[in-house]
Amino acid sequence: MPTSRPKHLNLMEIRLPLPAFVSILHRISGAVLFLMLPLLLCLLGSSLESLQSFTAFKAWVGNPLVKILLLGVLWAYLHHFCAGIRHLALDLHKGLELETARATSYAVLIVSILLTAAIGAKLW
């Protein structure tokens, strides 16, 4: 009984649907937030110690590379938040239809990017 199934599944050639891509980004953003938590807590602690440590904090955060890193963490937080709301709605069996799932996936991406741009422009 011959089978026509491939012997090797190339995952790089598979085109994921947008809801799957948003779900994967949700997991990645959660992992990034978890890994960046010690740095963020260290930054918060150093900003609250004294006036000298706050001055050092401002100088360190003023570095453009650090700003870009913090902008990425901000996007991870906002994307994780928006996608989390979407996943909660899916758990309540709302938006399970294919067209609605695609629309909410687009909404999560657009809203998270727009919020990141707005907050980043305000903080930059």
Defining traits:
elongated, 124 residues, mainly alpha, single chain
Q: Could you write a compact summary of the structure shown?
A:
By secondary structure, this protein is mainly α. The protein is 78% helix and 0% strand. The protein is built from 4 helices and no strands.
Summarize the structure in words.
With 124 residues, the chain is an all-alpha fold. It is 78% helix and 0% strand. It has helices at residues 18-49, 51-61, 64-91, 98-123. Helix 1 packs antiparallel against helix 2 and helix 3 runs antiparallel to helix 4 (98-123). The mean pLDDT is 93.
Q: Give the quaternary arrangement of the chains.
A: single chain
* Count of extended strands: 0
Count of DSSP H/I helices = 4
Average pLDDT score = 93
Gyration radius, rounded:
20 Å
Largest sheet: none
Low-confidence stretches: none
Shape: elongated
- Structural class, from secondary structure content? mainly alpha
Terminal Cα span: 64 Å
List the helices and strands and how they pair.
Layout: H1 18-49, H2 51-61, H3 64-91, H4 98-123
